[in-house]
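Re: that chain you flagged

S.,

Sorry for the slow reply, it's been a week of failed gels. I finally had a moment to sit down with the sequence you sent. For the record, here it is as I used it:
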Amino acid sequence: MAAVQLMLLCTPAAQDAAFEPVQNLLNSGRYQDALDHLEKLSSNEKSAARWHILASKAHDGRNDPVRAVEEAEAALSLEPATEAHHHQLAQIFLTRNTPQAALEIYSDAARLFPASWMIRLGRGLALKELQRWEEAEAALRSCLDEQPRSALAFDALATVYLHRNGFEPVRAAAEKFIKTNTADYRGYYFLAAARDGLGEPSAATRQLIQQALARRPDFAAAHALLGKVLLKEEQFELAAAAFEQAIRHRPDLVQAHLQRATALRRLHRDQEAAVHLDTVKRLKDQEQQGRAVLLYRRGAKP
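Prediction finished late last night. Pasting the structure tokens below so you have them in one place:
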């Protein structure tokens, strides 16, 4: 998700008249229509970097990353000094379980655009995915210091803090973020997660979760966190319902299945609990098989 948001932030504002309908189709999620429109353009337009970068976005949207990479590299070869082309190429790898390739692309771009906030953010996201926590923290903290209202930078930094520093830094960062961006759900969620991790009173934690869900009702992690808090309070019916909501929005959320099974067992609904435990086993088996990675032809190892 972060990489997708990053890609949207990097879309150039000015559009060539010939390409504007294609960009509109992409914005509407009509990826095949965008490709069909591109094919109708003139040979001169097809030789332009803009044609290739739009084709890359269309193929990416159709979940054809190989073609998306080919077109992004074609655009980059024509206009190597265009920042948005580096972003497009990197985000394909970042969203396809190949963060090492994304890191190399962003690192190369950083030498060309050392003042670019977006390049530094993309590099920080790649470092986070590689679990290089110390480097990721430094990069993301710098980005958030520069743009304290950035939900994307805050989300990534708070995630790094959870893995590296524990709950106190998460709470401090979340409290600060809420003051600068009260409309975003992430600050309330991470503050609630920090409070829960620190064992603080649950009533205020539940209120924070509800504030997060009021801003984004389909946020599975917040539903799961609410279920976790309710489970600790031994409100098993409400906990089971919260985990059910989490699963509805994210069927692959292992912890929600596992904890809903716990709540259901406490309610003596053992058959329903067994279904969720079977799902947990299936999801973990899939995880053991590993996720497919996109090969980086320029030499980076995924």
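What I noticed first: Residues 1-22+48-130 form a domain with the Serine Threonine Protein Phosphatase 5, Tetratricopeptide repeat fold (CATH 1.25.40.10).

Talk soon,
D.
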